[in-house]
Amino acid sequence: MKRRNPENLEQLLSRCGLRKTRQRLGVLKVLADAAGPLTAEEIGRVLRRAKPDKVTIYRTLACFVEVGLVHRAYLEDRTSHYELSANCSQRQCHPHFTCTSCGATRCMIDTKVEMVRGIGRGFVIHRQQVRLEGLCPDCA
Ligand SMILES: [Zn+2]
Ligand SMILES: [Zn+2]
Ligand SMILES: [Zn+2]
Fold this sequence. Notes:
The chain is an alpha+beta fold. Helix content is 29%, strand content 15%. The model has no long low-confidence stretch (mean pLDDT 89).
């Protein structure tokens, strides 16, 4: 699966109008290297050497989400998972597949899903997120 990851993380920050800090670059790098969406705890674990506190990670993530650099994905346990928005479109995130046997979640970057229709008057959709459950090839 080929992922579109930004080659220059510093450029990405400045394009979003964010000042470059060690903390931001660190979190961004973890997300760019990740195989799937990560929780704030998981990001903190990878960054352990830099010893960031939890509040700083949450604040950094909130800031990334606000400028659209990072999307929140809700997986099986309703915890926020975070990933770079580079592989999403304006109105829709790529689907996520979670294996109910081994628990692994994969980004289905090449999978196309139609936008929902017939949602009714007055509703405004900001983003569609699709979550799939089943067995991965290793478990099927
Ligand atoms: Zn997304
Ligand atoms: Zn599996
Ligand atoms: Zn993903």
